[in-house]
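Re: that chain you flagged

S.,

Sorry for the slow reply, it's been a week of failed gels. I finally had a moment to sit down with the sequence you sent. For the record, here it is as I used it:
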Amino acid sequence: MSASTFWFLAVGGAAALTHMGVFALAQSHMWPELANAMGFVIAFFVSFAGHRHLSFRDAATSVATSFQRFAVTALAGFASNEMMFVLLLRGLGLPALLALFLALVFAAGQTFVLSRFWAFRR
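Prediction finished late last night. Pasting the structure tokens below so you have them in one place:
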């Protein structure tokens, strides 16, 4: 396993735990879809900082360029996440945390490819 892959998984895990933690705290106060969005917003900053400084520290792009590209990448990942989350939660009736976990896993692959080859291009 390459160092980049290790750090991507570690940072992604930390961001996913952040996302799920915020969701768990917020879901009783709002619709689950909004709690998912709130978790995404907080986890976005954990993810960007970790990926910029650990996973893709040899990026050839500026911080501003990486941030803009990563925002697009993350929003695409969140769109996939939210669609899968709603399908699993509302369509299949899965428990909210399980639906969120599966949706996060689903979006992770897309985020890695876009991050590696575009947002933090080497």
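What I noticed first: Residues 3-119 form one domain.

Talk soon,
D.
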